Amino acid sequence: AWGAPVGGGELALGLKNGYVSPSIGNIDTSFTFRVTWIDEINGLLPTSVTVHINTGSFPMTLESGDASTGAVYAYTTQLTRVPHAFYFESAGPLFRLPDTGTYGGPSVTNRAPVLSAHSVTPGVGNMGDDYIYEVTYTDEDGDAASVVRNVIIDDVSHQMAVHSGSDPKLGIVFRHTESGLDRDPHKFRFEFSDGLDTVLSPP
Length: 203
What we know:
The chain is an all-beta fold and 203 residues long.
């Protein structure tokens, strides 16, 4: 990423100090890629600086500094939950950082869904009554519930159906109606997945 020695010593010319911040986040996180351009020979900025993230190329803007002491270029974006790799490239003159390969990151993590307002109605009843099990599914990433959307009654899983709501970020109420319960004490809990993480409530 550096030029050749000039005048008996090596004057800096090229790209350095490339990184992304933060290194870990979620799909709502703003990730900023930064790299420093320096030209101790002529004090000139390059024609352009680009960050290549996976298969995409994105122009960077001058954020601070100057070419003689270090001009910082930046690009901010949100990313999806896939593995990421990146490198920097300048044009006019052409330099690449790193010289070969890529940097890894950032890590974009999943936020597990949250289950709340779980209930069974009625709480006390008779044999032959219908018992309605409900739970609210919320997912900050907006992920819909997968096929794992169960109420587990006495260790037997029953898939639940949407009762109300459509936006996982705001909360979707799921319901299951069970009949034919006997007079024994019963226990239940809910099991849901967003396709990445599975949660149980109560744990």
